[in-house]
Task: inverse folding
């Protein structure tokens, strides 16, 4: 890459949306996979059912994180002594 290559990263103002997006994708992927595996076992329908469960759980978790994350930060700041 040269110094003239455009920086394709999002501006810092997008961070409050990108963080919950990444968290919700990762967490719902893992948790829905574990829950689906526990519920039906490793069957031939596992992947399809897992992806369906993941989609539904992500649709709920992303907007929830947008609301909860600022409240969680305030609670952490209340509980934890600053350095």
Result:
């Amino acid at each position: 890459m040269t110094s003239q290559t455009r920086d394709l990263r999002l501006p810092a103002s997008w961070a409050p949306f990108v963080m919950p997006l990444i968290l919700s994708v990762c967490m719902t992927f893992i948790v829905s996979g574990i829950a689906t595996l526990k519920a039906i076992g490793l069957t031939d329908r596992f992947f399809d059912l897992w992806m369906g469960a993941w989609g539904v759980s992500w649709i709920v978790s992303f907007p929830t994180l947008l609301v909860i994350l600022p409240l969680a930060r305030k609670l952490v700041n209340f509980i934890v002594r600053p350095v």
Remarks:
- Residues 4 and 58 are 38 Å apart (CA to CA).
- The chain has a mean pLDDT of 94.
- The helical segments are 15-40, 46-79.
- The radius of gyration is 18 Å.
